[in-house]
Amino acid sequence: MTASLYKYWRQGHAKLRDVEHVYMVLVALVIGLGGGLAAVGFRKLIGLGNTIGWFESEYTLDLLRAIPFWWKIPVPAIGGLLCALIVYYFAREAKGHGVPEVMEAVALRNGRIRPRVVLAKMLASAISIASGGSVGREGPIVQIGSALGSSIGQWLKIDERRLRTLVGCGAAAGIAGTFNAPVAGALFAVEIILADFGVMQFSPIVISSVAATVVGHHFFGDVPAFMVPQYDLVHYNELFGYAVLGIFAGVAALAFVRILYFTEDLFDAVKVWPPLKAVVGGAIIGVIALWYPQVFGVGYEAIDEALAGKMVWHLLLILVAAKIVAVSITIGSGGSGGIFAPSLFIGAMAGGAVGTVIHSIWPESTAGPGAYALVGMAAVVGATTHAPITAIVIIFELTADYKIMLPLMISTIIATLLATRFQKGSIYTIKLLRRGVDIHKGQDVSVLKHLLVRDGMRSETVTVRPGAGLMDVIATLIEHPGTSIFVVDEHHRLRGVITASQGRPVLTDPTSFAAFIIAQDMMQESGFPTVSPRDTLADVMKRLAHYRGEVPVVENGRLVGAIWPEDVIQRYNAELFKRDMASGMASAVSQGRRAEPIPAMENTSLTEISVPARFVGQSLGSLNIRNRYEATILLIKQKSGAGEELVNAVPSANYVFQAGDVMLVMGPDHQLRRLERGDMEITG
């Protein structure tokens, strides 16, 4: 019975996949409902943690003020410990705010996220927020929803292009379910996560966003996330006040980003067991909360007070600084939670402070402080995330009042322009830039990450000794087809580099300099890059952005080869073509068909083959598959130790097959059948 049901499922699924748009809409609907339910479950889990730690399902500022200090300090410390243990032993991706990890998965791993991240992030962030960690729930919900979308896509064996879209569906569901803002959820996914506004990506994301919003309405009602004040643009001169707010919000956002990463560096420099750092961080948050309990948790109640204009300007400014410090310590020490709600908090306090001052000066011509607090939320979010469209739309959806659009646009755009002028990356992308990942430039450099320098270097190098005469150096430069020669000592250790540009001044009259210039006088001793044979060609590509000559390959100080720029570029183009071709063909193969004939190539097919048992433990080069089977391996799907499928890898000759690997192979039909059997006899 079970086998029959599975058979019908496979047949129906295969037919449904042929109707691509309908199929993606249905999968997006499932992800939206699942993401909405995950958001509900996450909030319920936080409520359970609140009950355990503070004896109420949702702690209030009055409750926190009444709790004695000897309870207010250990609770966040214990919560930090539990959160860090989950992160350290179960899923390292669950540390921090989560959105950069999703962006990295989309940019570099084609949207593949480990399924365990769903549970790990949910538990770690719920504990961190419930115990008082000064973080938000939006980032975790985005990562949870994205991991859910990725897991569903991987289970359905959806191709890489559409898998990235499903990750965006999960992210949109998380934001929409949190803020009751379906449009903002969709824009967050396409502006921040995917950075792609294409119709093919946007349609499924909108479906997921709407589905998650419906789920949120069912469980929490059709209510906004904040108590939004009545808004009026009293006079058009007031727009100058909102411009001032934009400048102040931009400065606050820059301070937030820089202090956050400075604090992370401080904690990283302390070489102790990571969970101990989280204990210290949690205890510090508890100490701050003795005076300013508003910094605990997501801070929505404090935001509501700022929107209602119930705080004095100097308290609002103090809370801006206190929240920045508290969030930085929570995340830097190893906590898990988002920075979206803290950005809203900082913006509300900053806007409220500016609005209080402006309203006190021109009470008849300006709106109340609450209106400025509302606009300040969008301005700081736009400046920290470099996503002004999402920030504007979120606040607009919360108010449903078109009159707020002009102030929103002015403040948010000014704040974002200021932030982008003085900070290259957003609060999300800086984390990736510090890892050497630039998702906006050179994403395709990742195709070279599997290729080592030793596989692409030229072992024959043109060298001279430090004492070589000028005429010998000039003769070598003229005869050498490249632009650089290397100066080495008697032990072949690299001493320096001489480029054609360095020799050009003496070429006009070499006889005048021949008597007193040697190679050592002309060589460049520093300022040029070197690589080792174990580095990747992706590393070389990054160095070539600032250096145009041949890159010396050095091992233990000795020159062992050189990497020529044209060789790297040629290999890059070849790998990029191979990846794009294989990815497109793999999509067709994965639609349920065992082998796909290649048009215009008689008796030649593209198919996926599980690696034969006798190949396991042997390298691709030693098996000589191209000659033995007349076949070309385009991609290898690998399995991790935990059994999750990893990103497709373009194989190198040194790759050693592992159990569970799957090859995407192109070749003659009869040879592919031999390869599948593992027949080692050479034919032809």
Task: Provide a concise account of the structure shown.
The chain is of the alpha+beta class and 684 residues long. Helix content is 60%, strand content 7%. The chain has a four-stranded antiparallel β-sheet. The chain has a three-stranded mixed β-sheet with strand order 1-2-3.
Q: What would you call the structural class?
A: alpha+beta
- Strand arrangement within the widest β-sheet reads 6-7-9-8
Shape: globular
The CATH topology of the largest domain, please?
Answer: Clc chloride channel
What is the number of independent domains? 4
Compute the number of strand runs. Answer: 9
Indicate the proportion of strand residues: 5-15%
Helix content percent band = 55-70%
Q: How many strands, which pairing sense, and closed or not: the largest β-sheet?
A: 4 strands, antiparallel
Task: Provide the CATH superfamily of the largest domain.
Answer: Clc chloride channel
Under CATH at level 1, the class of the largest domain stands as Mainly Alpha
Unreliable stretches covering 5 or more consecutive residues: 585-594, 641-645
Mean pLDDT: 80
> What value does the Rg take, in angstroms?
30 Å
Number of helical regions: 30
CATH architecture of the largest domain: Orthogonal Bundle
Distance between the termini: 47 Å
What does this structure look like?
The structure is a single chain. With 684 residues, the chain is of the alpha+beta class. The chain folds into four domains: 16-220, Clc chloride channel (Orthogonal Bundle); 238-274 and 305-433, Clc chloride channel (Orthogonal Bundle), CATH 1.10.3080.10; 446-569, CBS-domain (Roll); 590-677, Regulator of K+ conductance, C-terminal domain (Alpha-Beta Plaits), CATH 3.30.70.1450. The protein is 60% helix and 7% strand. It contains 30 helices and nine strands. The protein has helices at residues 2-18, 20-54, 61-66, 69-72, 74-89, 99-108, 116-130, 138-155, 160-179, 182-193, 199-220, 238-269, 274-291, 300-307, 313-332, 340-361, 369-385, 388-399, 405-422, 429-433, 453-456, 470-479, 500-507, 510-513, 519-522, 537-544, 565-589, 620-623, 625-629, 669-677; strands spanning 463-464, 484-488, 494-499, 551-555, 558-563, 595-597, 604-610, 632-637, 662-668. Strands 6-7-9-8 form a four-stranded antiparallel sheet. It has a three-stranded mixed sheet with strand order 1-2-3. The protein has a two-stranded antiparallel ribbon with strand order 4-5. Strand 1 (463-464), helix 22 and strand 2 form a beta-alpha-beta unit. The two termini are 47 Å apart. Residues 585-594 and 641-645 have low confidence and may be disordered.
